[in-house]
């Protein structure tokens, strides 16, 4: 479970709630029609923009955000070196028992193909195709949440316009102007909160997840191909460690 995402959502919502309670009661910020406009409008527009099969993957994307767990790249390198040493001493068939202890299906499948004697080119092609599938799924989720993050404030503004029209229609009663103006503004508030606390941060978290996942898959790809080709474990370890250093440097450069 990703503690940072959960803590971030709770903290963000908590500070917003605290700000509300310090100035007024929570009742002023609860309005069912405004919620319906923002939530319903955002979902409706997203369904128009995306095929149903893409929208139905929201659950999978949320699982990647909150429940996804990746092994540390350093641990993967150590495991690959261990398997490579075993294969070098006892042959490829000697690593068949390791398959049962590998939790990652991508890793397990690659080792299974290696044990089965599948050609290196075929193993490489299959692993690259699987990486491509994962990358496309991640990009789909990122795009989906980014678009929802753009739609939510827009429907918040639409709700505000609806409220203003309703307010102007009753200008003959000055006592209703204040309350109706407040309700009109609440819809914009809902859209802004949903966009900046939920949808856009989720898109950013998926970008991070995708980069981490592809990095691990690339490490496994390079390691398994080295094992299949019978490269010396020390040479493989050196190559993978260089890749780790390059990836770390690229990440630091992006932060600057």
TrEMBL record:
<dbReference type="InterPro" id="IPR002898">
    <property type="entry name" value="MotA_ExbB_proton_chnl"/>
</dbReference>
<dbReference type="InterPro" id="IPR047055">
    <property type="entry name" value="MotA-like"/>
</dbReference>
<feature type="transmembrane region" description="Helical">
    <location>
        <begin position="35"/>
        <end position="52"/>
    </location>
</feature>
<feature type="transmembrane region" description="Helical">
    <location>
        <begin position="7"/>
        <end position="29"/>
    </location>
</feature>
<dbReference type="Pfam" id="PF01618">
    <property type="entry name" value="MotA_ExbB"/>
</dbReference>
<feature type="transmembrane region" description="Helical">
    <location>
        <begin position="181"/>
        <end position="200"/>
    </location>
</feature>
<keyword id="KW-1003">Cell membrane</keyword>
<keyword id="KW-0472">Membrane</keyword>
<keyword id="KW-0813">Transport</keyword>
<keyword id="KW-0283">Flagellar rotation</keyword>
<feature type="domain" description="MotA/TolQ/ExbB proton channel">
    <location>
        <begin position="100"/>
        <end position="217"/>
    </location>
</feature>
<comment type="similarity">
    <text>Belongs to the MotA family.</text>
</comment>
<keyword id="KW-0812">Transmembrane</keyword>
<protein>
    <submittedName>
        <fullName>MotA/TolQ/ExbB proton channel family protein</fullName>
    </submittedName>
</protein>
<dbReference type="InterPro" id="IPR000540">
    <property type="entry name" value="Flag_MotA_CS"/>
</dbReference>
<feature type="transmembrane region" description="Helical">
    <location>
        <begin position="144"/>
        <end position="169"/>
    </location>
</feature>
<keyword id="KW-1133">Transmembrane helix</keyword>
